[in-house]
């Protein structure tokens, strides 16, 4: 049977729409990988690491912007969680600096930028990012709420253990007597656990596809740099 003109010239099927969400994720991962790789190489091999250290606050801000761009549910509960965690993290550090009773005796250097009450303003953002990432990662575990909070707090302490050698070397902060006390990790776990319980009770969507990448990237960055500069 001959084909009619109409059947011979059927329009071609439209091309599949690109996965814009996946593309955005890959772009964000690429940017973060570039910044962290540049920082790692600069700090590990440069004769003048001070040039790269001046970008530490900027790198933290960039990471936060990209990370929270992938949080779809930014309702009032999420915003309240963010503000509360930033404030708690910052003022816990203020109390820690002034009393030495939470983490031990330490002082902040100049690397993390502008300070208020002897604590860098950006440190509250760091507490927020770690609390948020660890809380989301712990949700992959088949655990009840409190045990999940414990697991997330341990993830935060694990990150702190990797950060400490690098922080001391590059003047993020300095410990009295050049000794990182066990009290620091006990204090970190206690504060982290409180924040994780709060995270679990906050009513917002706890899913972010960028979180596993950022946590692993930062873990490898600090662990690798700490191993390299030993």
TrEMBL record:
Keywords: Membrane, Transmembrane, Transmembrane helix. It comes from the Bacteria. The chain crosses the membrane at residues 27-45, 51-69, 76-97, 117-138, 145-168, 210-229. InterPro entries: CruF-like (IPR007354). Pfam families: Caroten_synth (PF04240). This is Carotenoid biosynthesis protein. It comes from Hymenobacter lucidus.
